[in-house]
Structure formats: C-alpha cells, structure tokens
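Before a colleague's protein record goes any further, I have to sign it off. I want your independent view on whether this chain really folds as the tokens say. The record follows directly below this note.
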Amino acid sequence: MTHSTTTRRDGPAPSLTEVRAERRRLVESVRALRRLLGKRPAFEIADRRRLNREKRDLDRAAAAHAKAVRRVEARRARQEGSLTRQLAGLDGKQQSQEQRALAVLRRESVARALSGTRLDAREINGIGTGLVRDLAAHGIRTAADFDRVSWGKAPGGRGGQVLYIHRTQGGRVHINGIGEHRGRPLMAWRESAVARAEARAPRTLPPDERHRIAEIIETGRARLRAELAEVPRTAEAARAEAGQDYAATLDRLAGGHRAAADRAAERRAEFDAMAEQLRDLQAQLAAHRDRYGDDGIGGRLRRAQTRALRPAPEGPPVGTPVPSAVNQTDHTDQADQTDQTDQTDQTDQTDQTDQTDQTDRAYQYAPPAGPHPRPSLLWLIPIVFLGLTALLGVGEPDATAPAWFRAGTRLLALAATAELLRLWLPRRRRRTAAPLPPGTGPLTAGAFFALLAAGILADADPDDGAGWAAATVSLALVTFGAVRRVRER
C-alpha cells in the first residue's frame, strides 16, 4: 500500500494541488477496487450454479446406482421364481413322462399284435380264399394294414357306390366282390383283433423304465437346485460391481468438485483481499478528508469522494461444504450392502468396507438454500395479451387513428412482450429458476393501462375522463415499478 506524504505531522503543510492530487488518487483507487468487487455477485451466482450442478451430478449417480441395484434384485427375483416353479413341477413332470412312456409301450404292443394277426378266410364270414389273395395283392395281409372302410364313387366315375378299404400307409383300394355284406365282417374281425391286442398290452411300466425316468427327473432336480443356489451369489457379485462403479463415479466427481471448489476458494480469497484493501483505502480517504477538509477540491471531486466513501457492497451468501441428504442416503445403502456381504463372506466385507470408505471421502457441496420458486404460469396472460396487441394493435377499426399511433402502440406492446419473455423464460427453467425482479408486476400493469388509455383516447368519440384516468394510473404504476427496479439494482 502506497501511503501519501500528506499524512505526515512534521514538515510543511501540503499545497491545495497536492491535497487535490492525493484525494483524486485515493478516490480513483477506491473506484477501481469497487469495479473489481462488482464482479463478485456474478461470481457467487455462478458458484451457486456450480454447486447445484454438482449436486445434480451426485443425484444422477445415486439414481443410476439405485436403478442398477433394483435391476439386479428384479433379475434375481425372476430367476428364483422361475427355478422354484420348475422344481415344483418336476413331480408332475415325472408322472406325465411315465404316462407317455406307458402309452408308447402299449401302442407298440398293439401294433406288434396287429401285425401278427394275418387275414384268414376261416375267421372272416363271407370272405373266401380268393378275396384273401386279392387283398394281399393290394397290400392288405394283416389287421395292421388297414384301419377303416368307407363308401365312395366307383373308380372312373361309372357305376354306383362301392366300398373302399383305407390302408394304414395311406391310400384306399376297392376289391371287387367286397361290398357292404363283406365289409362289415372285415371291420368286425379287425376290431376284435384290436380289442385282443389292447387287452394283452402292458398296463404298467417295467421297473427298469420307471427307474430310468426317475433318474432323469432327479438329475434335473439337482441341476435346478444348483442353479437356485448360484442365483444369490451371482446377484451379490452384480451388486458389488454396481457398488464399485458407483464408488468410481463418486471419486471422479469428487476430483472435479474439489478442483472447482479450490478455484472458487482462491477467487473468493482474492475478493476478500480486495474488500479489505477497499476498506483500508476508504479509511485513508476519510482520514485525509478529516485532516484537510473539502475546501477547494471542487464539486465534482467532492461528489466522487462521497460515492467512494459509501459502504462496500456485501456479497451474496456463500454455500458451505456440508454433506447432503443424498450422500447420507448413499452411505446408508453402502452400509446395508456391507451388512449383506458380511453374511456371505468375510472377504467381501473387507472389500465393501473399502468401498464405503471411498464413498465417505466423496467431496461435495450442498447449496445454501432450496431451489428458487419459479414465476407462475399466470404470467402467460399478460404475455399473450401484449403479443396480440403487438399484432392487432389498439384502435385499429377507427379510421381516424393516425399511422404513427398504430405503429407506436404496436412497438410499445412488442417491447413489453419481449421484455416479459426475456425475464420470464429463463426463470422458468429448472437450472436458472428465480423469482421475477421487483417492479415487474407494476411495470406490466402500467403498460396495460397505457395501451388501454391509448385505445380510449384514439376512439372517434373518446371518453376523455376515462382515458386520462387510465393514463394517470399507467404513469403511477410505471413510476412505482421503475423505482423498485432501480432500488433493487
């Protein structure tokens, strides 16, 4: 800090030029520091946005971790449910396999018995040896070679209805001499052969076949039990992997957050140093003024000195590094995960404890307050009204309204609409949510009454009292809103 020689108590008194020069130097130094400190509110707002952004990153990481854990649990529940249902259905599956095996065994026994029952003229009434030879010539030698008879047109379409014998291997044949009277005994002979074969077929499975099916079912049961026992271990491994990914994400975010916090702390320390230097300069300026007075320094310098001696503006509140609720919840989840791992394996407990320590070392900031309230959607009413006015104008049906009036009212409505959209749209977004500046409501109402007064006064038969009253209200509202806006700034 450079000290002026005018503060010495010994030596000759400085001249008015020296006093004015020293006073101007102090005022310019204070002004320069004020300009630099004027950047602090923007820096604090940007830093608060950074804190909100970091919290959103941590929330996303926590949500992704929770989603991964839920996905693992859902997959585990599906696998356990499917395997449990398969195990429960093995007993019924054994019975059904035994029934199918018995059905196959009986079908094969009946087929062998029918294949061994040959056509014999002595056993079929009305069918002699010649018809037996004709049947054999057409591939029908045993009871297994045909299954039914039916009536149809004669071959070539000539003659009446004839009897067809349907072969088991496919196709049908007609044997001359075999009609209704001989077809019935033929089918009766086959049906009796089928009845004898079914009566002789086995009704229970042999012990070796039953034992083979039981071994197959038992092998499947052992496999399903092994898979069911493996499901929890697989789920635990997937959960541990998700926890490791989450811890790695927290470490990565913590590194970036810590670096940004260090830069913000350095910048904040610079602002604090400048604020301290500003207070020192203001003290020197006040001492200089008290020592030499304000006579002869000029009104312009006196006004600059008054502005320089105003109290330094205080910066907005700064967020403090505290653990947020999200981080505490994550720690609880990690602790629960460690407890579950303790029940399965001691080694997994050590790994999970390390992971919990990594999570505890995560460095984050929580914003000093909750999210700002967003402007209401009711602001769309004046925005739409002013926008329509900018398109349609006021007093347009009246031909007496001059062109400058139409253009002026449209420009006024357009400017008001653009200003409202500029203030309202960014504050509706989640990242930049904030209330509208003070005075916005009175200014909007003043624009509305101004357009109303213009429409009344531009009428061919105007109501001057109502028009001037609306103009007065508009002027009062605009003045009030402007004063509030200036005070806020």
